[in-house]
Design brief:
Shape: elongated
Bound molecules: ligand NPW, potassium ion
Helix content: 25-40%
Strand order of the largest sheet: 10-9-8-11-12-13-14-15-16
Mean pLDDT: 93
CATH class of the largest domain: Alpha Beta
Strand content: 5-15%
Number of domains: 2
CATH topology of the largest domain: UDP-N-acetylmuramoyl-L-alanine:D-glutamate ligase
Low-confidence stretches: 29-42
CATH superfamily of the largest domain: Ribokinase
Radius of gyration: 26 Å
Structural class: alpha/beta
Number of helices: 16
Length: about 500
Amino acid sequence: MATLPDGALMQRAAAGLAAVCARILRGADNASPGMDWRGGGQVTRPARGGPYGARVVLLVGSGDNGGDALWAGARLARRGARVDAVVLRHDRVHESGLSAFLDAGGRVLSDDDGPLTPAAEQAVRKADIVLDGILGIGGKGGLRDDAAYLAALASADAGLVIAVDLPSGIDADTGETPGAHVRADVTVTFGTHKVGLLIDPAAEAAGHIELVDIGLGPYLPRPAVEMLEHGDVAARIPVPGRHADKYRRGVLGMLAGSTRYRGAALLSVGGAVHGGAGMVRYAGPREVSAMVLERWPEAVTAPDVEHTDRVQAWAVGSGLGDDRGDEAEAALASGLPVLVDADGLRHLPAELTCPALLTPHAGELARMLDVDRGDVEARRLHHAREAARRWGATVLLKGSTTLVVSPDGRVRVNSTGTPALATAGSGDVLAGLGGALLAAGLDPLDAGSVAAHIHGVAGQVAAGTAGQPAASDVLDAVPGAMVSLVAAHDLL
Ligand SMILES: NC(=O)C1=CN([C@@H]2O[C@H](COP(=O)(O)OP(=O)(O)OC[C@H]3O[C@@H](n4cnc5c(N)ncnc54)[C@H](OP(=O)(O)O)[C@@H]3O)[C@@H](O)[C@H]2O)[C@@H](O)CC1
Ligand SMILES: [K+]
């Protein structure tokens, strides 16, 4: 801002915003160079042939977010759209934006007494597009009274809701939703993706995300949250060299499954085998080991952790049950990198002395931190950070947006998640994958985020062929997912 004339960034933002609205109104293909990280993302749009004659309503808050909406509204009005503004506070409105809007033929439907006039409500209900310019990055807390009512009206009754920069009322920095907020079909965000657009529950309110480049790139600090793309993941997948042998590729010790949860052993060993482990040494009861060997003859088995030597990392806990805590503790005391999943998380010492990757879901993290599960779901980043700090470990919090948080503060959010992965045994596959990558020498942050990415791609592939895939289908899709990631990378 300091290097540019006053208002230049807002003009870039408004121009980009108006262009997206015009494109949507034209019914043009929605594919864009921006990131639609939720995949698919086709927007049901009011195809009108263009802005001319379209009904657009602006919800205008008291800050610059409202200014963006007004300037974009002025551009659409000049292209023949019928643009009405509902101004939340007439005593505090972006002045130059408002005069440009009025000069372009826009109308204001609210009055000094408040925004909720009958004309305003009627216009929102009939709109082709509602532009949500109530709050942007300056918003604090959820929407209040009139704004909350308008947000609900727009989300329920109106045409397409397009959020300006972010859906008003979400927390831009955490992904929390402290109160009432807009639910958008599309979010047009400026300069950089906001953390809140990437982490649930707020991310869910953002819909399809379009990034408008306003030239901030060279000035941005290191991002608070990273999201790996396919190429980033492919570059991190260990590829065996000419002199590879099973030890160089990484031997993983696996303490998982039990006579009660036999499937967990098969799925997690399978995840490790397909994840590229040079060898998997399975430690478990004789009848489970026999099943493992039948399905995965490349594995070797031993009765327990004590008799499992020459491993480079451990994966501990998937389907383990309650009675092998001593062995879990022994693996955790080995000093080797350890992935800890499910029942293994009950046996964490107060302080970890090894590089660790903890892979709880929200319920398990709630138990670890002695808080409510609902609170973990509402404040995913906060609680994952808290656990990473408390144990000095990398925490992979599974869920609709899987987070991987390193104790040094780095955060990655996975872009490939799919509801198809929310099925019994899916986490066992992930644990095997992550364990194999730890054994191959990736640090816990890379091992966790690469495993989550591959797992998500496998889930998408499996959903594409099996519809509602089982965890075994996801496991079967892992090799293909890895091939497609690496092949795409080689083509870059
Ligand atoms: N920075 C840049 O480079 C660029 C930024 N740009 C744009 O600017 C936006 C940020 O603008 P901003 O800073 O003016 O804040 P904004 O989000 O409009 O809201 C602040 C106002 O809302 C009020 N308010 C707060 N909470 C509230 C609540 N819960 N319920 C009701 N009211 C509440 C608050 O009042 P206060 O709390 O101060 O009394 C204040 O009046 C950004 O998101 C992007 O769109 C682009 O133009 C491109 C360049
Ligand atoms: K907004």
